[in-house]
Structures are given as C-alpha cells and as structure tokens.
Specification:
Strand 4 and strand 5 form a beta hairpin. The protein contains 12 helices and 13 strands. With 405 residues, the chain is of the alpha/beta class.
Length: 405
C-alpha cells in the first residue's frame, strides 16, 4: 500500500532503500508502505460512495434489455433477450440479464437501479483507451486534464485526508489521480514482517513521524487483508480477486474511508458475447453482494455504488454473436442510498433513425451529470464546484432523482 501525491526527500529514499534491500519489508516497491505519510482523519460527511469502472464497453442493451421496444427484436438474433428468453422482467418494458438474478432482491427492495442511454461526451472514434481516459478524467474533451474527477471532488472538499479515499486493485486508476491525497491497495500486495523485524522497523522510525505513521498504516492494512482472508477460509469460501477487492473496500468503508474506486474487466464482447457477458455480470453481481454483506445494514443504507463504462455497444449484433464498440450505454446503481426499483433516464428508442450514427444507442444523458447529482445529494458538493471543477462544462439541469435522500 502506498499513498499518492506526496514528495520524498533524499533521507526518505536512503531509508527506504536500506529497508527494502535488507529484506525487512517483503513487498514490491510499488506496494511499499515507506514512501509517504498516511492520515487517519475522517471526511466531513457520513455517506459512502463506491465507483466501479466496467472496462471494455458494457452492452447496455443486453444487460437492461428493452424488450418492449418494437425495434429491439429486429436488431438481435442470438442475443435476443426478454422474459421469454430467460431474462427477469423489471417493469413491463425492460428486462434484466439472467446473470444478474442474484441482485433481484435488491431491485425488489428498491436498492438497485439503472440509468439507460447515457454516455460521456466521447463520440465517434470508439477507442477503449480514449474512452476510459475521458470517463475517468470527466472532461468534455480528450487530454484536457491529467487528474481524475474523484480526486477533484476531494480537492474542493475541506477536511479530506488520505484515508478518505482508496483506489483498490492492480490497475492504474486515473479516476483518483491528482493533488488530493489518496491511498492505494492491491489484493496481491504482501507485507511480511516477523515480530522481531516489525519491532526493529518501529524503533528505527519512531523519531521520524512521517515513516512511523506510514509503517503503522501499512501493517494495519496487511493485517486487515490477512484477517479478511482468514475469515473467508473459516467460512469455507475461496474468494476470487474481485471479491477480495470488494471485501477489502467494505472493511475500509466501515471505518474512516468514504470513497472507494476500482475496476472490473471483461466487458469487451466482440464475439461469443453470451458467455463473456455472463461471466462479467457474475463478477459484478458478486462484487455488489460482497460489498453489501461487508458493510452491514447500517452503512449500506447510506452507500451508493455507481458502476459505469466508457461506452456502450452497437444496437445490432454482429456476425460472430457479439457486438462492436458503440456510444450510448447504461449505469448500474446499487445501495441503500439509491432510489432503486426503476430504470432512470430518457429512452430514445431503437428505430434506425433514432440511433446515433444509425448504429448505436443514442445517448440522452451525460454520465457526469448523473454522478454530479449523486455527489450533490450525498456529500453536499456545491453546484458550481461540480460544473466548473469536478466535471468542467457539464450541464446539470433537472435532478434525475437517483437518491432516496
């Protein structure tokens, strides 16, 4: 584990080099706890926000299936959904992919919802790299800023410290990059110290508050991870990486942490989409349910989980049982703070003339505006900070009513 966005001196480098070379810390340099200080301060709000990036371009029309649209059946053959093909009816017009069946109790409890026909401002080129870059930067154009919108949220919020936000997992999360302090953790990072080595490291650092605090934080995180793994083993469960990430996020969110962000891969379904999407949705379902179980009812009730993807996929399936890169997609929302049990957004229809470039689901909403309203309702972020700093240029007109609050 390390904390981003702090400087290190020559003294820090020398001490870090000695410790890593001497074998006191059995972890990679990227996971070293000895780089920067960590604060345990809580954020000035009590709600929790979990952002999940669905990397690869999730096919919204297969996840939340518009079987009530007259043009839907003509666009899909092997991917045709709806209740007659095993999907779960949501509201008489949309149906849920059967791989998300474990989440139906959340839908019925109005703790699961969707926003359909949304996208970032990204158009036409349909590149994963550019689409994800824009999604995490939250800007209207490519390469305008190097920081991420979640980090800018922290920048405009007084009283935020490093343990307020966690970027969790192995990938680079631009979403939380920036000048505000953010903690990183990977489920595969290990800190292996014997009791004697731990005591020696502590003695070496007790006169240096920067390193002493960082070492203590890293050892606490390692113990948390080991305890989580041991508890899962006692329950007879072999957790998979996405479940370990969700379990760890829940552990931190039960404490001072208020924001957690990570990604789930596997949404690029150019061919044989049925199997690939089923597996990806299974991981998403596991992740949401692991978060709910780990948070407990009290914290889950004030949590919003927001899952978003860089773009949707073509309305018409291709010749290999898949779909190609598209434009309009969908957001998945879960948590006790969410006004669930409904498909939000303005549905544009699937007639050819209604499609974007006559091939993609037409975006009728901006994912940035949806997240902006969630921030405003849960955290109390000022409207001008959302529109001018966090999501430059975003238009926030009418509150879409995504929250119970």
């Amino acid at each position: 584990m390390m904390t981003k966005h702090a400087s290190s001196s020559a003294k820090a480098y020398s001490r870090r080099s000695f410790l890593t070379r001497s074998g006191l810390v059995g972890c990679s340099l990227a996971a070293s706890p000895l780089l920067t200080p960590v604060s345990f301060a809580a954020a000035p709000w009590d709600s929790r926000l979990v952002v999940i990036i669905l990397r690869g371009g999730m096919d919204a029309l297969d996840v939340v299936q518009p079987y009530g649209d007259p043009a839907y059946a003509g666009l899909r053959s092997s991917l045709l959904g709806g209740p007659q093909n095993g999907a779960l009816d949501l509201d008489g017009y949309f149906a849920l992919h059967p791989a998300l069946a474990p989440l139906m109790p959340l839908w019925q409890a109005q703790q699961l919802g969707f926003v359909h026909a949304v996208s970032t401002p990204y158009r036409n080129k349909r590149s994963h790299f550019d689409g994800q870059d824009l999604l995490e930067a939250g800007t209207p154009g490519l390469h305008e800023r190097r920081d991420g919108w979640l980090n800018r949220l922290l920048q405009v919020t007084p009283g935020v410290e490093a343990r307020t936000a966690f970027a969790i997992g192995q990938g680079d999360m631009k979403l939380l990059q920036g000048s505000a302090p953010v903690s990183d953790w990977s489920p595969d990072a290990q800190i292996a110290l014997s009791p004697q080595a731990e005591r020696l490291a502590g003695l070496m650092m007790e006169q240096d508050p920067l390193f002493h605090a960082a070492l203590g934080e890293a050892l606490d995180l390692a113990r948390d991870a080991r305890d989580n793994a041991a508890n899962a083993a006692r329950r007879g469960k072999r957790s998979r990486p996405h479940q370990r990430i969700a379990d760890y996020a829940a552990t931190q969110l039960r404490g001072d942490t208020r924001i957690a962000a990570f990604s789930i891969n596997g949404w690029d379904t150019h061919n044989r989409q049925t199997g690939a999407l089923t597996r990806a949705l299974g991981r998403l379902s596991d992740t949401i349910l692991t978060l709910k179980a780990g948070l407990g009812a009290g914290i889950w009730d004030k949590t919003a989980v927001v899952a978003m993807t860089e773009f949707g996929r073509t309305a018409r399936e291709n010749g290999t049982g898949g779909t190609d890169h598209g434009t309009g997609g969908a957001m998945v929302l879960a948590g006790g703070a969410i006004r669930g049990g409904r498909v939000h957004g303005h549905w544009p229809g699937l007639d050819e003339a209604a499609l974007f470039d006559r091939r993609d689901l037409m975006p009728t909403g901006d994912v940035r505006a949806q997240v902006g309203w969630i921030m405003r309702g849960m955290i109390g972020v000022r409207h001008q900070d959302i529109a001018n700093v966090i999501f430059p240029g975003v238009e926030m007109t009418t509150d879409p009513g995504l929250l119970r609050l």
